[in-house]
Design goal:
By secondary structure, the chain is mainly alpha-helical. The protein has helices at residues 10-20, 26-33, 37-46, 51-65.
Length: 80
C-alpha cells in the first residue's frame, strides 16, 4: 500500500506549527506559514487552540520529563 502525501492546507499548517512550537508568537506563526496574524488567530480560535494552554501543557510535560523540576510559564497577563 502506498501512502499518498498531500499538501497541507494553510489551516493545517497553522495548527501543526502552533502545536509543534507553542512558544512562537502569532506573528511568527503567520510568517512561517506565509499568512496574516489575523488569519492565524482566527484559525486557532476556530480550532479551540490556545497558545497559552499549549505552553502550560508543554511546561507540565517538561516537569514530568525532568523529574519534578518546577517549570513556570508566565501567564499572558503577567507580561515579560
Amino acid at each position: 500500500m502506498r501512502i499518498v502525501e498531500r499538501e497541507l492546507t494553510k489551516k493545517d499548517q497553522i495548527i501543526q506549527v502552533a502545536q509543534s512550537d507553542p512558544f512562537l508568537k502569532v506573528d511568527e506563526i503567520a510568517q512561517i506559514v506565509d499568512t496574516t496574524p489575523r488569519y492565524v488567530r482566527t484559525i486557532l480560535s476556530e480550532a479551540g487552540i490556545s497558545l497559552a494552554q499549549l505552553r502550560r501543557s508543554y511546561a507540565r510535560r517538561m516537569e514530568k520529563r525532568l523529574g519534578g523540576v518546577n517549570v513556570t510559564v508566565p501567564r499572558p497577563t503577567d507580561g515579560l
